[in-house]
TrEMBL record:
InterPro entries: ConA-like_dom_sf, DUF1349, UCP022704. It comes from the Bacteria. This is DUF1349 domain-containing protein. Coiled coil: none annotated. PANTHER family: REGULATION OF ENOLASE PROTEIN 1. Gene3D superfamilies: 2.60.120.200.
Length: 218
């Protein structure tokens, strides 16, 4: 089992560079911390609005040979077993523009999943990193500008699901994932080739693992 570590100089305690949002407006995002605070981020009526910085990304070694860990991630503390989900809205314009959900133990053990612009279209994308990163993509047939992601971690298994309406949740990925005493999970966005992707995150939920059958899509 891996013990999660938090590096104090990379996890800023504020919602944005100018300090905490108020307790009233920050709910339900209270308790989260930034990894790589963007220059522009604020919470309005429970909606988390983030604008990406230039060259932000999460990747580790595979194919390209480089490691990048400067993407934007707002990590909410989660126990060893959980389900988390959120809604993501964004307009993707440039190669590798991406937004979605991230589950993280440390810089070498994490997953990110959501929509990523690749080869001229919005793709359903997931990167699982266990020492090194992999990358899986598939065309997304619903509206990529407005969708939900769900991540469940339970007993060393990761289950990723996507939804177009918040009601039906097809499987994106089922994979082994390192066991840990606790995790960080929350919204993630990056723009490796530019800056200025505006993303809205909302409908955040964190609970015990749902425990549904694999083909139960509710």
């Amino acid at each position: 089992m891996i013990k999660r570590t938090i590096v104090a100089d990379t996890l800023a305690a504020s919602v944005g560079p100018h300090g905490h949002a108020s307790a009233e407006t920050a709910w339900p995002w209270q308790g989260g911390r930034w990894l790589n605070t963007p220059h522009a981020a604020e919470i309005r009526n429970g909606i988390f609005e983030v604008t990406t910085d230039k060259g932000s990304d999460f990747w580790r070694e595979t194919y390209y040979g480089f490691t990048r860990d400067n993407g934007h991630f707002f990590g909410m503390p989660a126990p060893s077993r959980f389900t988390a989900q959120l809604k993501i809205r964004a307009q993707y314009e440039e190669l590798y523009d991406q937004a979605g959900i991230m589950v993280r133990i440390d810089e070498s053990h994490w997953v990110k999943a959501g929509i990523e612009l690749s080869d001229g279209r919005a793709m359903l994308s997931s990167v699982l990193t266990d020492g090194q990163s992999d990358w899986a993509t598939s065309p997304y047939s619903d509206d990529p500008k407005d969708f939900w992601m769900r991540a469940t971690v339970d007993n060393g298994i990761l289950r990723l699901q996507v939804s177009a309406d918040g009601k039906t949740w097809p499987l994106v990925r089922l994979a082994p994932f390192p066991k840990a005493e606790s995790y960080l999970v929350g919204p993630m966005c990056c723009t490796p080739e530019r800056e200025g992707l505006k993303v809205q995150f909302s409908d955040w939920q964190l609970s015990a693992p749902l425990g549904k059958a694999l083909h139960d899509l509710t």
